[in-house]
Amino acid sequence: MKIFKDANGHDWAIDINLDARNQIKERVKIEIDGQQVAFDLLDVKAAQRIAVIGDMQEAETVGRVLWALCSEQAEKAGIDERAFYRAIKGDVWDAACAALKAELVDFFPKDRRTLLASAMEKAEQIRAMLIEESTAKLSSGEIERQIKLEMQQMLSGLSTSSQD
């Protein structure tokens, strides 16, 4: 069981077991190959979506998985789904995703656990590398020069067309 704290200071326990897997499968639908299907943690494509959580393309799916895992706790605390989602932002998002990833790894038997942990580690390394490269580009002035060049071309095109 992993715990994360939301923006309101509420602790949420993430515990992935067969019952939680069934709750997620029942409540969360995703698109795979153009079709809406149940999100099944035992399906490789579904597990891959969790493994690469850091990219925000999967934020909606991850949010629904978190809600499926925490909805009983929320009900007991008098917190509705929208309030739950509103309290997950910024560093809380990172903590919730880390808890979800760690719990997902722990859910699987050793052989798959090792493989999934390796995949998640590799995804994190790639994400960190991309952030570092993007930060270097922003710091280098390369993007600023490109924007200036494009604006100058656009402006010179406007002045040429206005003379016609």
Describe this structure as you would to a colleague:
The protein is mostly helical and 164 residues long. It starts with a strand and ends with a helix. The protein has a two-stranded antiparallel ribbon with strand order 1-2. The protein has seven helices and four strands, in the order E-E-H-E-E-H-H-H-H-H-H. Helix content is 68%, strand content 10%. It is elongated and about 65 Å long. It has one domain. A hairpin with a 5-residue loop joins strand 1 and strand 2. Helix 5 runs antiparallel to helix 6.
Mean pLDDT: 85
Low-confidence stretches: none
Structural class: mainly alpha
Strand content: 5-15%
Q: Major β-sheet, in short?
A: 2 strands, antiparallel
> How many structural domains can be distinguished in the coordinates?
1
How many helices does DSSP assign? 7
* Number of extended strands: 4
Termini separation (Å)? 71 Å
Characteristics of this structure?
164 residues, mainly alpha, two-stranded antiparallel ribbon, 7 helices
Give the gist of this structure:
This protein is mainly α. The chain is built from seven helices and four strands; from the N terminus they run E-E-H-E-E-H-H-H-H-H-H. It has one domain.
Please outline the helices and strands.
Layout (H helix, E strand, L loop, with lengths): L1 E4 L5 E4 L3 H10 L1 E4 L2 E4 L5 H8 L7 H19 L3 H6 L4 H17 L2 H31 L1 H21 L2
Antiparallel strand pairs: 1-2, 3-4
Helix pairs in contact: 1-3, 5-6
